[in-house]
């Protein structure tokens, strides 16, 4: 190689070493702080155990919103009829003040599990509101007929009850067209607080294009499950937005320290149904 090429190679190598040393320095400081805290704990008087559940530390206590997410796997030949049935029934519940619940969004999965519908509901007032809605819907003949017809179209279904992270946005209706990404993370038991601490800082890096829709963690169903919901104009905008996050100081640290907390993760790209408040 020429002298010019060697100079360029050496310059590139120096930049790489500088970036690596900077990240390694941050990691070393983080490890030192943790070790220092552990060392100090040997000499500090023990305090009473915390009386609050982890969910009280992570969620918006003053609002007490409860969310339900539903995953319906539909028979391929029934998907169009299923969508039409949902569009005829779900908005009537959403718009009726008799039921203390709101339809946050309803989608079909585009990439991920095929022939799948995802619905998300919000219950203002928590578990009492959920119980009230379920009781009233059992008396609703049209809804019971909807459930009967829906059951003929499904292969399987599951749901989860969720709370929202205090540092995320509350989902509000959006104009479209948008695509939505639901990123789901199965965390290692006991790591939810640590995840919340990192993402309370990280969410600031992901607000520049208004892509953050909502962040939730499970209470009933698969436990230690986190769902992040994002909105993008299209797949190209998704790629550009995600790549831009790496230009922000500190994003690499968040990724580095949260990846070990994850046991399993997956991503769904979803298209809103016509009746979805999130378009």
From TrEMBL:
Query: One GO term of the cellular component aspect?
Result: mitochondrial matrix
Domain named NIPSNAP is located at 180-277
Q: Which Pfam families match?
A: NIPSNAP
Could you mention a single GO BP entry for this protein?
A: mitophagy
Q: Where in the cell is it found?
A: Mitochondrion matrix
Which key words tag this protein in UniProt? Autophagy, Mitochondrion, Transit peptide
User: Would the keyword Protein biosynthesis turn up in this protein's UniProt record?
Assistant: no
Coiled-coil boundaries: none
- In terms of superkingdom, the source organism counts as Eukaryota
Q: Which SUPFAM superfamilies match?
A: Dimeric alpha+beta barrel (SSF54909)
Function noted in UniProt: Protein involved in mitophagy. Accumulates on the mitochondria surface in response to mitochondrial depolarization and acts as a 'eat me' signal by recruiting proteins involved in selective autophagy.
Q: Which family does it belong to?
A: Belongs to the NipSnap family.
**Record's protein name:** Nipsnap homolog 2
Species source reads Oncorhynchus mykiss (Rainbow trout)
